[in-house]
């Protein structure tokens, strides 16, 4: 993950589920795509493979799929 550019994604609530974040950040086309990416082990959160679509992200985490990375930031 050293050379990828990390884009900030702001969330309004205290947390967001991983599947929702993938859609918000355009890393997944829809919920089914997000589910498949996660099930196939293609999604990492802070460098670790995450297999729970409902994993709660609260801000500060870096999520990557296929070399595209976003960092969750709480708005406000």
Automatic annotation (TrEMBL):
Position of the signal peptide: none
Coiled-coil ranges per the record? Answer: none
Q: Which Pfam families match?
A: S4_2
The Gene Ontology terms for molecular function here are: RNA binding
Q: What domain of life does the native source organism fall in?
A: Bacteria
This protein's UniProt keywords: RNA-binding
* Protein name, as recorded: RNA-binding protein
């Amino acid at each position: 993950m050293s050379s990828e550019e990390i884009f900030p994604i702001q969330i309004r609530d205290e947390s967001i589920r991983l599947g929702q974040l993938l859609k918000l950040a355009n890393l997944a086309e829809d919920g089914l795509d997000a589910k498949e990416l996660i099930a196939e082990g293609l999604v990492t959160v802070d460098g670790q493979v995450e297999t729970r679509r409902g994993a709660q992200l609260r801000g500060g985490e870096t999520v990557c799929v296929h070399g595209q990375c976003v960092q969750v930031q709480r708005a406000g």
